[in-house]
Design goal:
about 110 residues, single chain, mainly alpha
Length: about 110
């Protein structure tokens, strides 16, 4: 047995080790690609469903906020009208204005 025989044996042995060592990463890569393909087929319907739910939540939230805010706005508007009408009927005297200015001065 000469050196060429051992060289051929070592090349075969190293090739076998490399093949076995690469089978696992190749298998993982194969199943990862299959999983991503399956995921890309299932995601669009789920995104569509999530969009519908988001639209429903937004619509219901908007209608509920309008139900709550409309009476408050109406009451505030009437109070502002009354205050404005009273100020138009009874203007402030110069003495009230000067007293107010002295209160706010630091």
């Amino acid at each position: 047995m000469d050196l060429a025989f051992w060289r051929d044996i070592s090349l075969i042995w190293l090739s076998l080790i490399c093949f076995v060592a690469l089978v696992i990463p190749l298998g993982i890569a194969y199943f990862a690609v299959k999983g991503i393909n399956a995921l890309s087929a299932r995601v669009p319907p789920l995104l569509h469903q999530a969009q519908e739910i988001s639209h429903t939540v937004r619509t219901r939230t908007e209608s509920a906020s309008l139900q709550v805010a409309t009476p408050v706005i109406r009451t505030r508007r009437q109070a502002t009208r009354l205050t404005t009408a009273l100020r138009a009927l009874w203007p402030r005297s110069p003495r009230d204005l000067s007293a107010k200015e002295t209160i706010h001065e630091p």
